[in-house]
Amino acid sequence: MGYTVLEIATALGAKAVGAVDVIITGASEPASAGPDDLALAMSEQYAGGLTNGQARVAILWQGADWQALGLRAAIFVPRPRYAMSGLTTLLDQGPEIEAGIHATAIIHQTAVIGKGAAIGPFVVIGRGAVIGDNVRIANHVSVAEDAVIGDDALLLAGVRIGARVRIGNRFIAQPGGVIGADGFSFVTPEKSTVEKARENLGKKVEAVGQSWTRIHSLGSVEIGDDVELGANVTIDRGTIRATRIKRGSKLDNQVHIGHNVEVGEDCLLCGQVGIAGSSQIGDRVVMAGQCGVSDNIFVGDDVVAGGATKIFTNAPAGRILLGAPAVKMQNHVEMQKALRRLPRMAKQLADIKATLAAKE
Q: Among 98, 104, 143, 144, which residue's Cα sits nearest to residue 122?
């Protein structure tokens, strides 16, 4: 299936020039583009690749001379990366999940399946579960008892939805996600060495024989509208109240959300972020890959944390953080500069000591 240049430009709210009736069937980098591809030459640095490819049409930067570049047509967009979202939405065929319910799916007689749902092979849907309209569920997905999934959701292969989980509309879960596993909660009859170490700020404590007793998870998970989860995301159910992911938040592959955590609206949590139990994350928070958040702390609205930042204390709204432990980004940069100077400073100190010793 293809689209004319004019149809693509209209979908993007962009300007098209030249032969706008040319049919486009895919998108490509300029150097590898075929004659039916739309070349993505959105800045001047990619213009050279057009001569190596066969593209007849390209998305170009504002002010580009499309005819001098040998093109039959061009699309001009004001914000290239944002245009990518519309273009990929238009061209993405999505996963192939046949309409209706596959013969191998096992659906409890009390489950409610919305109209237009597509349920793939070997799916299991438990007692009292509710599946919204136009939901697409790929193979080997399980939805446990009394779970609710809103309209227009997409659950890809191997996703596990736990009991009593509540999920909003337009939810997307990439393969292997687990929503609603038990929280990691264990306790000892007396104060554990971990509790003592925290009280004493790491001073030596007397070790005693201890065994761990499970605290069961009675809460669940609540997920708002327009939330997306990457592959192998894990979200633990709460101990008493629910773990919550609010509207519009996006979680990358292998993100882990501990029990009782609350993640605000429109957050972006990149690969391997881990948030420990009972922490609260504000709205529009961005955490780059491998960030970690300690338990029982608060991260304010609009915080941005650079890669591998470790947040051990409350972070006020709007703070830009980096490092382990987390500090203001500009402070971290200065600290790293000072760290690189340490060998030279150590040598200078040794030379001064040697000079003073010789004088004595």
A: 104
Residue 30 lies in a domain: yes
Q: What is the pLDDT of residue 192?
A: 85
Which tokens in the block code for residue 3?
Answer: 């689209």
Mean pLDDT in order along the chain per 10 residues (360 residues): 93 94 95 95 89 94 92 92 91 92 98 98 98 98 98 98 98 98 94 82 75 96 98 98 98 98 98 98 98 97 98 97 96 94 94 90
Say how far residue 108 (Cα) sits from the centre of its chain: 32
- Does the residue 28 lie in any domain? yes
Q: Which domain holds residue 32?
A: 3-91
- Residue in 102, 108, 259, 332 annotated catalytic: 259
Strands 3-4 and 23-24 turn out to be antiparallel
- The CATH number assigned to the domain holding 54 equals 3.40.1390.10
In a domain, 195, yes or no: no
**Total domains in the fold of the chain:** 1
Q: Which of 313, 248, 246, 222 is nearest to 276 (CA)?
A: 313
Evaluate whether residue 47 is within a structural domain.
yes
CA distance to 202, 239, 308, per residue, from 313 (Å): 16, 22, 15
CB 310 within 8 A of CB 297: no
Taking the CB of residue 41, how many other CB atoms lie within 10 A of it? 28
| Catalytic (active site) residue 216 | no
Pull the structure tokens for residue 193: 């060495």
